[in-house]
Amino acid sequence: QVQLQESGPALVKPSETLSLTCTVSGFSINSYYSWGWIRQPPGKGLEWLGSILHSGSVYYNSSLWSRVTVSLDTSKNHFSLRLSSVTAADTAVYYCARIGDKDGLDVWGQGTTVTVSS
Amino acid sequence: DIRMTQSPSSLSASVGDRVTITCRASQDIRNELGWFQQKPGKAPKRLIYGASILQSGVPSRFSGSGSGREFTLTISSLQPEDFATYYCLQHNSYPRITFGQGTRLEIK
């Protein structure tokens, strides 16, 4: 059974960099899927941030591309998100997910809440 | 970028009602669309993929239809546990994906 688990600091100061890791179990990330990050601000909808393919190719939301970095570590079977220069508007629940080209997004992590505050 | 317009943004209905939610894509996305249900404090759960394929374990009162630019999610007879927020998601532009804005389904 494929499981994804986010981890990282729950509190980040304004202007600093948010860093999260998604650990994948039950499945190799070195396979033909993309691994993505999605967030949900309090009371709002879902926003895709970016994804990385098993090849290492990355794709970002055009509204955030200058601040987002997604990377892959196949040796640890995890992938990571970095979001720089955060503000209060980046306060959200952050989810990692597996996305297939044929059937779309099929597995979510449970989500982790990140608050941006001094 | 492909934009997904979901309607209505909120909906009040009663147990037993038939409910329909619509998503329109800004361009042809074939059948590369899924529907998700989200309850408060939980990760979304996939109900439908491939526009009309029911996810294993999902009750048959949920159904999806459409292709190209217009898609619908129908709940044939609302149950108490169905009151939640629903999202569509396109993956035609894979690996880029786009969500609809969501539909909050409330008890009348």
Give an overview in words.
The complex is a heterodimer of chains A (118) and B (108). Chain A is mainly beta and 118 residues long. Chain A is built from no helices and eleven strands. In chain A, the strands form two sheets. In chain A, strands 2, 4, 5, 6, 9, 10 and 11 form a seven-stranded mixed beta sheet that branches. Chain A has a four-stranded antiparallel beta sheet with strand order 1-3-8-7, with no helix packed on it. In chain A, strand 9 (92-100) and strand 10 (104-108) form a beta hairpin. The relative contact order of chain A is 0.31. The mean pLDDT of chain A is 96. By secondary structure, chain B is an all-beta fold. Helix content of chain B is 0%, strand content 49%. Chain B is built from no helices and eleven strands. In chain B, strands 2, 4, 5, 6, 9, 10 and 11 form a seven-stranded mixed beta sheet that branches. Chain B is globular. The model of chain B has no long low-confidence stretch (mean pLDDT 97). Classes of the chains: A mainly beta (118), B mainly beta (108). The interface between A and B is medium-sized, with 25 and 22 residues.
Core attributes:
heterodimer; A: mainly beta; seven-stranded mixed beta sheet; four-stranded antiparallel beta sheet; globular; B: mainly beta; 11 strands
Radius of gyration of chain B: 13 Å
User: What is the tally of beta strands of chain A?
Assistant: 11
User: Looking at the structure, what is the overall shape of chain B?
Assistant: globular
What structural class do you assign from the helix and strand content of chain B? mainly beta
Mean pLDDT of chain B: 97
What is the mean pLDDT of chain A?
96
- In helices, the fraction of residues of chain A equals under 10%
Report the uncertain regions of chain B. none
State which percent range the strand residues of chain A make up. Answer: over 45%
Low-confidence stretches of chain A: none
What composes the largest sheet of chain B? 7 strands, mixed
Shape of chain A: globular
How far apart are the first and last residues' alpha carbons of chain A, in Å? 39 Å
